[in-house]
Each structure stands twice: as structure tokens, then as C-alpha cells.
């Protein structure tokens, strides 16, 4: 019987074999590590970029810009105007089919068009480039409505101009029914509306055309007549300011039809508070918190006193062609007390679990004395000979030419809508 050969491998040989095996395993591990490392790094970078995109538009409503203000986060409302005639305007006035004549300054004779070429640049980040198709896709099947006075109408016209050029003629429509102005992007099932309600609550200035009355009356506790037109909205952008600018308001308790109504003149600021209380109470009870985004647009400033930016006291925005470059410039006529009333109402709603985002466009608009229609708009009433000899007497220094400043407001709104969609 043959004996099996003995294992003649020495301890030294066995050690050599084990070392080789360990070396090969080490090489395999290093290879897999080197292959996986770039993938892991790419994933980390992608997650960081996504987080940064979502964070960069998170901002706080702040007081007028001063030299001492600072913020480690991006604030879309603090920045400067940069001349950019390569990228701006975002649309051509003559190609916006639905632009109201009140804002069509080029059509009504304005020759200097530099006001169209300024881009709002926040200090610590960039606004996302406005993309009409992206916005319409985000809004697919939804309703966005601006509620308020003619400055909100100005912003509505701007947003319609920004999106309508990307929609075929057969797939868009516009109609006016009473106080409700509607633009529809039919293919997307999107409705972008404006509802005329200049004081938010009921008033004798609620008619969409015949509202310039000498004796203004407001029902500070009545809002349902208007609010029922907003209830089904997905995004609501409110404003109210211009129509409150008088020392006292005549307030009505009761209806306009009733002979038993009680009328009382009340300090404007107090009546403004009462109206916003009615507005906020309605929101708290009626808004679908899981569905509806709420915004409030701050004061849109007028430029009425040339002596405040270095010209004569009797000069206003007429013939102005350049922005104001003084950091933190603030028109003395801009009522900061009214801003504080709005901020207080929004804070109160927040304490009740309802978020309203302030679109604090006041400071960025303060710089733009050059961008108002002035005399370059459709005049609803014929001007007298004396007025024609003194154009400053009828220059519109409250509204804005389009393309122009309200486009920047809507670029900021667009950033918020995109951010909200990313978070959800």
C-alpha cells in the first residue's frame, strides 16, 4: 500500500503564500475604493447643490436697507440695479398682446428705453432666470390670482407678458368679467387672474372702471363679497396701499343699500388696521392651508419730490432717465407705519399657524425714479391747456412702465414658487 505524499511545505513557504493572498486582496480593495470614491463624491456634491438651491431663496422681511444691515443668508430684496442690455428686457412691449395702455410707455411716445435694461441683482446670490415654460409647468392645473389695486394690476400685466409669448395664440385667452380679469394658458389648464379690490374689504371704489370718487367710503368689516372670488385659488398675491392715502377714512357700519348705516370718520392708520384684521380673520377660517400659498406685496413707492434725489422740489419723475444709486434711498412719502401694520397682521397669522410671505419690493423699487409712465401712457381724461404746458402736473409717478420694475417683482415671486415646489 502506497503512502500519501507528505505535505512538505515549510512554515516560511506558507507565510509567503499568505502574504501574496493578502496583497491581492488589498489590491482588490483599493481598486473598488478608487472606483467608488468619485461616485460618492458626485452624490455628495449633488445633494449639496440641491440643498443650496432650496436654501438660497430663504429670506427674511427686513427694514429699509442701511449701511449697518447685514445678513449671512441670501436676501432677494437687498441688492442693486445692474445695467444689462444683453439679457433685458425679458420681453418686448410691442409683442405683449395683452398689455394695458396705462403701462405701454413706448407705445405712447417714450423714446428713452434704457429703463427696460436694468436687472435686479441681490447682494449675496443670483435670482433664478425666469423661465415661462417652467413656471407654467409648476402651475399646471392651478389658479394664481392677484388681489388688490392698480399696482397689483401692474404686476399681473407683467406676469402675463412674461408667460404669454411662450404660448401659441390658439392656446391662450383673456377676458374681463366684472372685477375679475382672467388670463388662461389653455394647454396647461392654468389661470392667472387679477381681482380689483383696491382696499381688500368692500368700498364705494370697487367698480373696476368708475372708482375715482371724491368721498371714499369703506366697510372695514365686510370682505365676503370679494373673498368668494378667491377661495378656490392655489396662489394668492395681495396688496392694498394707494387707496388709503388720506388723513381719514369714512367708515360704514351697515350696507351701502341700507338707510340705517352708521358712518364715522376714522384715522386712516386705524381703519387700515381694522380692514387687515377682517382680511386676516377671513384667511384663517377659509384658506386651505395644505393647498394655498399666500403672499402680500409691500408698498410700491411713488417718486414725487425731486429735491429728495438732488433736483428741484417741484420736479417729480417726469424726464427722469436714471435710477437712484444712493444706497438705502427712501422716499419721504412712503408710509412705513402702514408697512408695520401689515407686518403685524402677518406675524399674528403666523402665530395662528398660517404663513403669508411678504414680498418686500419697496426698497428695490425706491431706486427706480426713471421707470414710471410719467406722461407716456393712455390718458383717460383730456388734459387742459395749463396741464399740457406743465407736464409734471399730470405725470404718473405711481405706476410702472412695462417691461420694467414689476418684472423684477415677478422674478422674485417665481423664485418663491420654484422654492415652494422643491420643498414639497
UniProtKB/TrEMBL annotation:
Entry superkingdom: Eukaryota
Domain Trichome birefringence-like C-terminal, first and last residues per copy: 127-415
A GO cellular component annotation in the UniProt record: membrane
Subcellular location: Membrane
Principal cellular location given in the protein's record: membrane
Domain spans labelled Trichome birefringence-like N-terminal: 73-126
Topology class, membrane: Single-pass membrane protein
Keywords: Membrane, Signal-anchor, Transmembrane, Transmembrane helix
Keyword Transferase: no
TM segment ranges: 31-49
Keyword Acetylation: no
Pfam families according to UniProt: PC-Esterase, PMR5N
Family per record: Belongs to the PC-esterase family. TBL subfamily.
Protein name, as recorded: Protein trichome birefringence-like 34
Amino acid at each position: 500500500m502506497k503512502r500519501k505524499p507528505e505535505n512538505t511545505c515549510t512554515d516560511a513557504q506558507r507565510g509567503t503564500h499568505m502574504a501574496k493572498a493578502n496583497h491581492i486582496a488589498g489590491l482588490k480593495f483599493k481598486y473598488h475604493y478608487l472606483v467608488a470614491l468619485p461616485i460618492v463624491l458626485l452624490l455628495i456634491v449633488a445633494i449639496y447643490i440641491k440643498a443650496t438651491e432650496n436654501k438660497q431663496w430663504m429670506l427674511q422681511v427686513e427694514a429699509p436697507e442701511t449701511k449697518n444691515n447685514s445678513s449671512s443668508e441670501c436676501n432677494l430684496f437687498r441688492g442693486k440695479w445692474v445695467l444689462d442690455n444683453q439679457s433685458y428686457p425679458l420681453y418686448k412691449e410691442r409683442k405683449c398682446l395683452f398689455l394695458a395702455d396705462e403701462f405701454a410707455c413706448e407705445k405712447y411716445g417714450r423714446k428713452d428705453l434704457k429703463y427696460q435694461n436694468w436687472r435686479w441683482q441681490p447682494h449675496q446670490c443670483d435670482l433664478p432666470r425666469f423661465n415661462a415654460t417652467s413656471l407654467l409647468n409648476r402651475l399646471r392645473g392651478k389658479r394664481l390670482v392677484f388681489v388688490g389695486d392698480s399696482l397689483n394690476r401692474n404686476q399681473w400685466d407683467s406676469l402675463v407678458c412674461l408667460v404669454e409669448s411662450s404660448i401659441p395664440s390658439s392656446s391662450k385667452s383673456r377676458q374681463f368679467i366684472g372685477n375679475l380679469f382672467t388670463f388662461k394658458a389653455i394647454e396647461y389648464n392654468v389661470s392667472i387672474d387679477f381681482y380689483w379690490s383696491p382696499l381688500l374689504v368692500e368700498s364705494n371704489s370697487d367698480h373696476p372702471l368708475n372708482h375715482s370718487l371724491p368721498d371714499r367710503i369703506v366697510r372695514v368689516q365686510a370682505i365676503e363679497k370679494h373673498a368668494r372670488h378667491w377661495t378656490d385659488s392655489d396662489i394668492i398675491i395681495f396688496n392694498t396701499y394707494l387707496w388709503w392715502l388720506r388723513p381719514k377714512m369714512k367708515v360704514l357700519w351697515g350696507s351701502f343699500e341700507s338707510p340705517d348705516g352708521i358712518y364715522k370718520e376714522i384715522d386712516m392708520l386705524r381703519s387700515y388696521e381694522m380692514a387687515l384684521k377682517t382680511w386676516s380673520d377671513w384667511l384663517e377660517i377659509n384658506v386651505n392651508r395644505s393647498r394655498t400659498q399666500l403672499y402680500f406685496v409691500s408698498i410700491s413707492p411713488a417718486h414725487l419730490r425731486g429735491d429728495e434725489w438732488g433736483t428741484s422740489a417741484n420736479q417729480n419723475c417726469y424726464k427722469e432717465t436714471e435710477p437712484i444709486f444712493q444706497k438705502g434711498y427712501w422716499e419721504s412719502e412712503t408710509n412705513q407705519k402702514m408697512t408695520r401694520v401689515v407686518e403685524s397682521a402677518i406675524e399674528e397669522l403666523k402665530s395662528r399657524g398660517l404663513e403669508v410671505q411678504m414680498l418686500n419690493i419697496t426698497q428695490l423699487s425706491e431706486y427706480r425714479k426713471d421707470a414710471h409712465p410719467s406722461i407716456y401712457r393712455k390718458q383717460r381724461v383730456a388734459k387742459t391747456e395749463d396741464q399740457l404746458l406743465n407736464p409734471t402736473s399730470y405725470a404718473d409717478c405711481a405706476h410702472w412702465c412695462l417691461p420694467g420694475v414689476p418684472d423684477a417683482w415677478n422674478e422674485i415671486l417665481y423664485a418663491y414658487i420654484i422654492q415652494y415646489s422643491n420643498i414639497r
